Each structure stands twice: as C-alpha cells, then as structure tokens.
C-alpha cells in the first residue's frame, strides 16, 4: 500500500472514530431518532442525484436501509442518548463482526475456522467485561441497545453480501434514502412533534455542523474513500485499519467529552479488538455454494465489492 493510501485509510478510521463524539454532541441538539433521520436525509441529498441509478435490485436497497439505517443506527442513537458513552459505543459496536460471522454461517453456509471461533469467544469475553464495567457505572439498558445495534449491523452485512453491489458509494447513497421517512415517523410517535419542532427551530451552527459531519464527512467521504481503497487493495490489507476506529473513538471522547477510560474498559478494548481481528482477518471455510467473500471492513459498510478480475477470491 502506498504511503498516501495508508494515510487515507488511517484518516477514514479517525473520521469514523471521531464520529461517535460528534454524535454525542449532536444529541444535545436533537432527539435521537430525529437526528438519525436528518443524518440520512443530508447523506442522500443531493448525492442521490449525482451517483446515478441504483445498480442493485430495490429489495436489497430497502432491506439494508431498514436494517442498517432504522434498526442499527436508531438503536445506536437512542442508546447513546440514554447514557451509553461515545467511546464505549465505538468499541462495543465492533462485536458486529461476531454477529456477521454467526449469521453468515447460518444463512450463507460459511463455516468458521477454529481460529475464527476462538476470535468470537475472545470478543464475547470483551463484551462481558465491558458490560460489567458499564453495569457498575452506567445504564445497562443503553449498553444492551448498542449490542442490539451491532446485531442489526451483522444482519445488514449479510444482506449486503447477498446484494453484492458493484458500486459501494452508489449503494450507500441509495440505502440512505430508505431510513428517512421511517425514522421521522418513529420520532413523531415516540419523541413527539413538539420536541422535534423545538429542535428544528433552535437549530444553530453547532447542530448543523454535527449533521453535516455525520452525513457528508463520515458517510459520504468515509464510505467513498473506503470503497476506493477496497477497489485498489485486497480486503485483507484494508480491513485491519477498521480496528483503529475504537482507538480514535475512545481517545476523542476522552479528549473532547472528558470520558474516563477505566482499567476494565481498557481490558475490554484489548479483548474486543483482538477477538475481532481474529474473526475478521481469518478466511472462512467455504460451503458448497461458492460466493465471493465479503469481510468486515468499516463502520458504515461492512461488505467487500466483487473482486476485480485480476484479484483472486480468497
């Protein structure tokens, strides 16, 4: 990997890690479901008019949009609003790699190797340690919501594998159009029209900046740059950089939000990152139906586009 490409991969990981701190700041300005809806609205417009027509069937765009956009991000934003720390959220969400492997084994017939199983067990031990830490110092319900978000993310990863989008950025922009109305409807039902209107009327530069960051910088730039790297390098080369996300997430939360990192949380981080590394960087055994492998590659889209003709499928 060229130095410039390496720097770009680290930059994307940093953007995705800092994104959790920006979300925490944005939740001071918006109810969580409204904030999530505005994030996807800003990510979809005007990009949807620039990326061309969808390149996969609408059923895949709709299913990934609902599972990833509504379930995963809805739970993340609500969980963080309920008290889940930004840094810990960036860490706990990495358990999506385990959910992805388990669901892929059940749905796609991908049999995990012994090393992958070991990685899952190590990562689950990290979640257990993080749960003990959060249960002692914060709301356990919010922690469970973020774990639920990771499970939804794992399901969306498998759906994305089935969709096999040839253009990752095009796919993500069109997926971003799906959650807007469901999230707005849920916000009106649960958060109330008066709270939503008050947030919109009180919109200031900081609130607008958080929307633009999570939509354009984290989603459009981050996802586009990650897809660009994956088209030029094997997933096994690019994927390890996603393990830097919780490092930047926890560091930025400590720096800008004053979040403390307890010894238990450091222990959870070491177990989770190590377990996810074993889970995502070890190839799975193939079942009878041979499919292009898609590995966990990043917080916005955990799916590898179909391999170029000159690259062997691992």
From TrEMBL:
<feature type="transmembrane region" description="Helical">
    <location>
        <begin position="58"/>
        <end position="80"/>
    </location>
</feature>
<dbReference type="InterPro" id="IPR050638">
    <property type="entry name" value="AA-Vitamin_Transporters"/>
</dbReference>
<dbReference type="Pfam" id="PF00892">
    <property type="entry name" value="EamA"/>
</dbReference>
<feature type="domain" description="EamA">
    <location>
        <begin position="6"/>
        <end position="129"/>
    </location>
</feature>
<feature type="transmembrane region" description="Helical">
    <location>
        <begin position="138"/>
        <end position="159"/>
    </location>
</feature>
<feature type="region of interest" description="Disordered">
    <location>
        <begin position="295"/>
        <end position="314"/>
    </location>
</feature>
<protein>
    <submittedName>
        <fullName>EamA family transporter</fullName>
    </submittedName>
</protein>
<feature type="transmembrane region" description="Helical">
    <location>
        <begin position="86"/>
        <end position="108"/>
    </location>
</feature>
<feature type="domain" description="EamA">
    <location>
        <begin position="143"/>
        <end position="280"/>
    </location>
</feature>
<feature type="transmembrane region" description="Helical">
    <location>
        <begin position="115"/>
        <end position="132"/>
    </location>
</feature>
<dbReference type="InterPro" id="IPR037185">
    <property type="entry name" value="EmrE-like"/>
</dbReference>
<keyword id="KW-0472">Membrane</keyword>
<feature type="transmembrane region" description="Helical">
    <location>
        <begin position="263"/>
        <end position="281"/>
    </location>
</feature>
<comment type="similarity">
    <text>Belongs to the EamA transporter family.</text>
</comment>
<feature type="transmembrane region" description="Helical">
    <location>
        <begin position="237"/>
        <end position="257"/>
    </location>
</feature>
<dbReference type="InterPro" id="IPR000620">
    <property type="entry name" value="EamA_dom"/>
</dbReference>
<feature type="transmembrane region" description="Helical">
    <location>
        <begin position="171"/>
        <end position="190"/>
    </location>
</feature>
<feature type="transmembrane region" description="Helical">
    <location>
        <begin position="210"/>
        <end position="230"/>
    </location>
</feature>
<keyword id="KW-0812">Transmembrane</keyword>
<keyword id="KW-1133">Transmembrane helix</keyword>
<feature type="transmembrane region" description="Helical">
    <location>
        <begin position="33"/>
        <end position="51"/>
    </location>
</feature>
């Amino acid at each position: 990997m060229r130095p410039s490409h390496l720097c770009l991969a680290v930059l994307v990981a940093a953007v995705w890690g800092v994104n959790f701190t920006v979300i925490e700041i944005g939740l001071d300005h918006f109810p969580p479901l409204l904030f999530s809806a505005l994030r996807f609205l800003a990510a979809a417009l005007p990009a949807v008019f620039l990326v061309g027509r969808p390149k996969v069937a609408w059923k895949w765009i709709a299913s990934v949009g609902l599972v990833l956009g509504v379930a995963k991000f809805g739970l993340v934003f609500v969980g963080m609003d309920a008290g889940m720390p930004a840094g810990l959220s960036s860490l706990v969400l990495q358990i999506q790699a385990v959910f992805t492997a388990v669901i892929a084994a059940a749905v796609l017939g991908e049999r995990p190797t012994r090393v992958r199983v070991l990685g899952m067990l190590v990562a689950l031990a990290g979640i257990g340690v993080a749960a003990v830490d959060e249960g002692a110092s914060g709301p356990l319900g919010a922690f469970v919501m973020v774990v639920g978000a990771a499970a939804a993310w794992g399901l969306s990863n498998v759906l994305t594998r089935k969709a096999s989008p040839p253009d990752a950025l095009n796919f993500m922009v069109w997926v971003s159009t799906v959650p807007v109305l469901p999230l707005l409807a849920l916000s009106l039902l649960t958060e109330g029209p008066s709270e939503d209107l008050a947030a919109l009327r009180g919109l200031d530069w900081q609130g607008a900046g958080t929307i633009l960051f999570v939509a354009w910088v984290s989603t459009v730039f981050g996802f586009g740059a990650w897809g660009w790297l994956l088209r030029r390098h094997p997933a096994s080369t690019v994927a390890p950089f996603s393990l830097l996300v919780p490092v930047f997430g926890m560091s930025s939360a400590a720096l800008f939000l004053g979040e403390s990192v307890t010894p238990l949380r450091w222990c959870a981080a070491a177990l989770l990152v190590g377990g996810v590394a074993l889970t995502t960087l070890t190839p799975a055994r193939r079942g009878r139906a041979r499919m292009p492998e898609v590995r966990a590659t990043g917080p916005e889209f955990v799916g590898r586009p179909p391999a170029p003709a000159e690259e062997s499928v691992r």
